[in-house]
Amino acid sequence: MTVADDAGRPVPPGPAGRVVVVTGGSTGIGRAAALAFAEAGMRVVLASRRAEQGEDAAAEIKEAGGEAQFLACDVTDPEQVRELFATVRSTYGAVHHAFNNAGVPGDGRLVDLTPEQFDATFAVNTRGLWLCMREELRTMAAQGFGSIVNNTSVHGLRTVFPGIGAYVTSKHAAIALTRIGALEHARDGVRVNAVAPGPIETEMLAASEAAVGGATTWRGLIPSGVIGTPRQVADVVLWLFSEASGYVNGQVVAVDGGFLAV
């Protein structure tokens, strides 16, 4: 059966030509994912608060022969999120895939956090994720087709370190959003899954050195002792978008070098 979007246009059978939105697409895992999606022939929309880096990421994709554009968006602002997806729909007529990657750290012991610090972490990692998912699910359900991947963390599956309580809690909530989204829209032709990265070579990992020991501590916890790369996460997300994972829904795939097996 040929799948069509809400305007009656057939959805390409493979990734080439499909439209994907990447939040937090200016750096780290989001940027690597955007590049991987473009290499697969997808039309990429990068969204981020970091305009200069986002424009640079889009330019890098274009220089490599891919199709990309950058749209500034703060995922904590409902109107900006609504406008982001309205622009994508008006430009491309569809949103086939979304990688909800935007996230922030949340350092500090629970007893030391202020309400403002706790709320700031949840505003991006949980509420911002929900705001994006709300637009994505509405659009994809109307199309009768779509796949969403949320970037969570092994911290959402196992409490690894003390001292990052707001982050850990927000990632548990992100996994819950993934599962309820999958349940509510499975009959609409929409799949919702998540990746749960372990230690990955990013700015966030480098910044965690002072609080929890960063890569130094992680190397002692990973069976191989090797820190992962953003591209390794991106490749798993691309698989979750593909027909090869067509019967995978509501799942959290760890990309952690075997950490959760220990």
UniProtKB/TrEMBL annotation:
Keyword terms, alphabetized: Oxidoreductase
UniProt GO MF annotations: oxidoreductase activity, acting on the CH-OH group of donors, NAD or NADP as acceptor; quinone binding
InterPro entries the UniProt entry points to: KR_dom, NAD(P)-bd_dom_sf, Sc_DH/Rdtase_CS, SDR_fam
Alphabetical list of CDD domains matching this protein: SDR_c
Pfam families, A to Z: adh_short_C2 (PF13561)
GO annotation terms (biological process): fatty acid biosynthetic process
Domain Ketoreductase: 18-167
Sequence similarity: Belongs to the short-chain dehydrogenases/reductases (SDR) family.
Protein's name according to its UniProt entry: Short chain dehydrogenase
Organism: Kitasatospora indigofera
Source species taxonomy: Bacteria, Bacillati, Actinomycetota, Actinomycetes, Kitasatosporales
